[in-house]
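[agent] plan:
  1. take the single chain provided in the ticket
  2. run structure prediction with default settings
  3. attach structure tokens to the ticket
  4. add a short note for the reviewer (M.T.)
[agent] executing step 1
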Amino acid sequence: MKLSIILAILLIAIVGYLILQNSPSGPAIKTNHTISGNQGLLLNEQDLQELGMTQVWNETECQTQKYTTMDMHQIEYNICNYTINNLSDTWVVIELKKFANPEDLNNTYLYESSHLFSPQGIISVNDYGDQSLFRVNNPNDYMGHLNEPGVYYYHLWICKNEYLIHITSRGRSKEAGEYVTKIGEQILSKFG
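[agent] step 2 finished; step 3 output follows
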């Protein structure tokens, strides 16, 4: 009896998964395209020179995608990967998400900026506008004790208009935090 119940549940799960995967509005629809409005917020060559950074990917543009989630929220998404020239072994990832409505933006910001993080790593709150958070990794974060000693992960989340900007760095230098904040200020300056 127990075995037949387990097999029935497993069969239902597999069929449900297959239906979602074959559905035109499955879990996430990814399409590459140019996002109108976002391109002006991305770092250009002049910004990179001023900040002392180099783009990692061998492309002229950052990765750009549009997602439609299962609950039909539309997110326009850019991700860029950089290194900091003066800090060896330091990587920076910039994620720019444009939301169709403020509720989705607020919910995503609240989830991303607090999920799995302890309050001990918070450096500043709302220094870059309402709903901004700057933090560094801490051993009290979820699974934080597994982080490699001497490696710093800085995160800066900024909400501006319909955008969620998330800047992350990974490296052995505490100075990377200053770069992360300068990057945030540079992107905010593009809003005019």
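[agent] step 4 note for reviewer: The beta strands are 53-55, 63-68, 74-84, 91-99, 122-125, 132-136, 152-160, 163-171.
[agent] ticket updated
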